[in-house]
Specification:
By secondary structure, the protein is α+β, with helices and mostly antiparallel strands. The protein contains seven helices and six strands; from the N terminus they run αβαβααααβαβββ.
């Protein structure tokens, strides 16, 4: 005998089926809700090319770091806790935010104190460290990576394959593997170099969502600005 179902029963079954499908993860990424401080797999250290930031954002903001009075090339954008796929952000933490002593000390390599504080709340809060320990780790990561002098010595803008930036970093940092470093572009310009590090700040292979390199063959790379 074929059993028939009433229309309300069919509707209810459809609702439960939709909910069940919605609860199945769409991919390999870890659930990103309810982040816990200290729960992450590795770090990504992001180094931004300051002339690109100035062209795309800083000039419009009237940033004094774009007036060329200081020769600013690579700057530390941040040290970001990362999952193998995805990243935690804005984690609840009992740790106090960085005070003026820390923001002032980091401003030389990160820019304005406001950026230092932003990086703490956005990323540092997920490290499980105090603000002092987190920025000490960020400084140590920055200091152990050499920035190619050739790139900061250019006197004119050039168009180049983004892979040349990667090669320049690998040449002066033989301890960093090719899969531990990636170059990003924005609006046709070289934007950042991102280096993947273990929780002990040793180079390691990047996760699949971080390892995507810029594929441009004619990315614009502007020289360090020199003021009057």
């Amino acid at each position: 005998m074929t059993r028939s179902f009433s229309r309300p029963a069919i509707v209810i079954a459809a609702v439960f089926l939709a909910l069940a499908i919605a609860l199945v993860p769409a991919g390999p990424s870890r659930a990103l809700d309810g982040h816990e401080a200290g729960d992450f797999d590795y770090y990504v250290m992001a180094l931004s090319w300051q002339p690109t930031w100035c062209t795309l954002e800083g000039d419009a903001r009237g940033s004094d770091r774009c007036d060329g009075r200081e020769r600013i090339g690579w700057v530390l954008h941040g040290l970001w806790p990362q999952y193998e796929w995805g990243s935690p952000e804005d984690c609840p933490t009992a740790q106090a935010p960085p005070g003026r002593r820390i923001t002032g000390a980091m401003a030389d390599i990160m820019g304005a104190p406001g950026l230092v504080r932003y990086q703490w709340f956005r990323h540092g809060s997920c490290s499980g460290l105090s603000a002092e320990a987190y920025f000490a780790a960020a400084l140590r990561a920055w200091q152990q990576v050499e920035r190619p002098a050739l790139l900061e010595g250019l006197d004119r803008e050039v168009l180049l394959p983004a892979t040349l930036i990667e090669e320049a970093f690998l040449r002066v940092n033989p301890g960093i593997g090719r899969d531990s470093l990636t170059v990003t572009c924005r609006s046709g310009m070289i934007q950042e170099v991102r280096i993947c590090l273990t929780r002990d700040l040793e180079p390691r292979r990047c996760g699949p969502d971080t390892i995507r390199d810029c594929a441009l063959q004619d990315a614009l790379f502007q020289p360090v600005r020199v003021g009057p």
